[in-house]
Specification:
Elements lengths: L17 H29 L4 H22 L5 H25 L3 H13 L2 H11 L2 H26 L3 H22 L14 H5 L2 H31 L3 H28 L1 H21 L4 H30 L7 H21 L8 H17 L1 H6 L6 H23 L1
Helix pairs in contact: 1-4, 1-5, 1-6, 1-7, 2-4, 2-13, 3-4, 3-5, 3-7, 5-12, 5-13, 6-10, 6-12, 9-12, 9-13, 9-14, 10-11, 10-12, 11-12, 11-14, 12-13
C-alpha cells in the first residue's frame, strides 16, 4: 500500500505528521534528559547543605511555574510558551556553568532550575499528546521514556559527578532543543479552537478523580516508605545492596516502560495500572512477613523498578492526554497529574533525616500498612473507565486474528 506523503509507517507511529511528532517527541525527550543533567548540578550543591531547603525551592519552583505557564497559555499560542521555555532553560544552563565556578547560592539555583523545567513541561506534554494518536500513544511514550533513561544513564556514566561537565553538557543539550524548534518550525502545536478548563472542572471530572486518587496514594506511600526501606535493606542485605538498587531499578524500569506502553495500546491502560498496584502491594506484604530473607529484597527492587517504569509511562505521559479531549486545554490535566510526583519527592527528602531515629519494629509495622493502602487504592481503579477506546482494542484484536489466520493458511497452502 502506498503511504501518503508526510506520514510514517504503522509499525510505531501512525497517521501523524512526521514533523509534528518528531518535534514534540524530541522536545519532551531532550527536556527529560536535560532535567537529569541539571539534577547532577543541584545534587552537588546539596552536599553539606540544607537539602530540605534546596529540594523545597526546587519543588516550589516546578509546581508554581507549571501553574503559571498553564494560565499564560490561555492568552497566547502554545508555540510561544515553548520558545520562551526552552530559551529560559538555555539561560539557566549557561548560568549554572558560572554558578558552579563561583559556588553561589544553592537554593536560588535550585529555584531557577525548577522554574526553567516546570514552566513549559505541561505544554510540552500536551503537544506530545496532540501529536500522537490514541492507539499509538502508549508505545510512543514507552519508547520515549526508555530512550530518556538510557541516555540519562549514559550521561551519568560518562560525566560521573563532574558538575562543571554536567553544566556544559546541559547547556549544549538545551541549545539543541532550541535549534530543533527554530529550524523545523512546526505549523501546528495545538488543536484550535481549544476550550479553557479550570482546576475545579478537572477535579470534578469523575474519571480524572478515579485515576488521580490511586496515583496520589502510590506516590505518598512510596515517598514515606522508601527512606526506611533503604535503611533496612542495608542492614539485612548489606552495603552493596544500595548500589545494586540504584543501578538495577532504572534498568529494569526502562525495559518495562517500553513493555507497558505496548501492552497499554493493545489491552488498555487499566490493566497496566492494576498489575502494578497489585505487584507492589504483594511485595510489601512479603517483606513484612519475611524481612530477613535476602532474596525478597532483590525481588522488591525488581518489582519497584517495574512499577515505576510502567507508572511513569502511564501516569506522567499517557493517561492525562487520554482523559483530556482534543478541543480542551490539556495543560491543566498534566499540571494536576504531575503534582503528586514532585510533592512526594520533596516529602521523601523531608523524612530521610529522621530514619535513624525510628526503630525496626516501627518500620516493620509500616510495611503491612503500606501494603493495605496500595490494595485499597485498587478500588477506585475498579470503577475508573478504560481510557483506550473499546473500538481500538477490538480493532487490534481483529487485526491480530486476521494476521494469524493468514499465517495458518500460508502454512497449509
Amino acid at each position: 500500500m502506498k503511504l501518503k506523503k508526510g506520514f510514517a509507517p504503522d509499525s510505531l507511529i501512525a497517521r501523524v505528521p512526521i514533523s509534528g511528532l518528531f518535534v514534540s517527541s524530541f522536545l519532551l525527550f531532550s527536556t527529560l534528559t536535560w532535567f537529569y543533567l541539571m539534577r547532577i548540578v543541584v545534587f552537588d550543591f546539596v552536599k553539606g547543605q540544607d537539602d530540605v531547603v534546596i529540594y523545597g525551592a526546587l519543588t516550589l519552583a516546578i509546581i508554581s511555574s507549571a501553574v503559571l505557564g498553564t494560565f499564560i497559555v490561555r492568552k497566547i499560542k502554545r508555540i510561544y510558551i515553548l520558545y520562551v521555555w526552552v530559551v529560559i532553560g538555555v539561560i539557566t544552563s549557561i548560568i549554572s556553568v558560572f554558578w558552579t565556578l563561583l559556588t553561589l547560592n544553592a537554593p536560588l539555583l535550585a529555584f531557577l532550575f525548577g522554574f526553567s523545567f516546570g514552566f513549559g513541561i505541561p505544554s510540552s506534554l500536551s503537544y506530545f499528546a496532540d501529536s500522537v494518536t490514541f492507539e499509538n500513544r502508549g508505545r510512543n511514550a514507552g519508547l520515549l521514556f526508555a530512550l530518556t533513561n538510557l541516555l540519562s544513564l549514559l550521561f551519568l556514566s560518562v560525566l560521573g559527578e563532574n558538575v562543571l561537565s554536567a553544566s556544559i553538557a546541559a547547556s549544549l543539550w538545551r541549545i539543541l532543543s532550541l535549534c530543533t524548534l527554530l529550524l523545523v518550525k512546526p505549523h501546528k502545536t495545538e488543536k484550535s479552537p481549544r476550550k479553557s478548563v479550570t482546576f475545579k472542572s478537572v477535579f470534578s471530572d469523575r474519571s480524572f478523580a478515579l485515576f488521580f486518587l490511586p496515583w496520589l496514594m502510590f506516590c505518598l506511600v512510596d515517598s514515606l516508605e522508601r527512606p526506611y526501606t533503604a535503611a533496612l535493606a542495608t542492614q539485612f542485605v548489606g552495603e552493596d545492596f544500595a548500589a545494586f538498587d540504584r543501578a538495577f531499578e532504572p534498568l529494569i524500569g526502562t525495559v518495562f516502560a517500553l513493555f507497558a506502553g505496548i501492552v497499554a495500546d493493545r489491552f488498555g491502560r487499566k490493566r497496566v495500572i492494576l498489575s502494578g498496584f497489585i505487584a507492589l502491594g504483594t511485595t510489601f506484604a512479603t517483606l513484612s512477613l519475611a524481612p530477613t530473607i535476602q532474596i525478597f529484597w532483590y525481588i522488591a527492587s525488581a518489582v519497584n523498578g517495574i512499577a515505576w517504569g510502567m507508572f511513569y509511562v502511564i501516569f506522567v505521559i499517557v493517561l492525562w492526554g487520554d482523559l483530556s479531549s482534543e478541543n480542551v486545554m490539556r495543560e491543566m490535566y498534566f499540571v494536576l497529574g504531575g503534582f503528586p510526583l514532585f510533592f512526594a519527592d520533596f516529602l521523601s527528602q523531608v523524612i530521610s533525616p529522621f530514619v535513624q531515629n525510628v526503630s525496626r519494629e516501627t518500620v516493620f509495622a509500616a510495611f503491612p500498612i503500606a501494603s493495605f493502602l496500595l490494595f485499597l487504592s485498587v478500588f477506585p481503579l475498579m470503577y475508573a473507565p478504560e481510557t483506550l477506546p473499546e473500538k481500538k482494542i477490538r480493532d487490534r484484536e481483529l487485526r491480530d486474528y486476521v494476521e494469524k489466520a493468514k499465517k495458518v493458511k500460508e502454512k497449509r497452502g
